[in-house]
Amino acid sequence: MTATTATPATSTTYTVTGMTCGHCVASVTEEVTALVGVTGVEVDLPTGAVTVTSDAPLSTDELRAAVEEAGYQLTA
């Protein structure tokens, strides 16, 4: 029997500006979730914090493009 090891998830928090409502949260969540490897997205509207969980580290440029596609700006 061969043992398989699960790759640990990577979780990183970013700051997104311009979100003002639940629709904004849904748009950012939808675009970021569509990125390959993303397994979870949590958005805190009051602070603009977006925590992304993925099975491998994500490219910041790729994440920035997804956030901009939703109509917002990744600032950190």
List keywords for this structure.
Alpha-Beta Plaits, 76 residues, 4 strands, alpha+beta, 4-stranded antiparallel β-sheet, 2 helices, single chain
The CATH architecture can be named as: 2-Layer Sandwich
Q: What is the number of domains? A: 1
Radius of gyration: 14 Å
- Class inferred from helices and paired strands: alpha+beta
Task: Give the helices and strands, then pairings.
Elements: E1 10-17, H1 22-33, E2 38-44, E3 49-54, H2 60-69, E4 73-74
Describe the structure.
Strand 2 and strand 3 (49-54) form a beta hairpin. This protein is α+β, with helices and mostly antiparallel strands and 76 residues long. Strands 2-3-1-4 form a four-stranded antiparallel β-sheet, covered by helices on one side. Helix content is 29%, strand content 30%. It has one domain (21-74): Alpha-Beta Plaits (2-Layer Sandwich).
Summary?
This protein has a single domain, classed as Alpha-Beta Plaits (2-Layer Sandwich), CATH 3.30.70.100. The protein has helices spanning 22-33, 60-69, and strands at 10-17, 38-44, 49-54, 73-74.
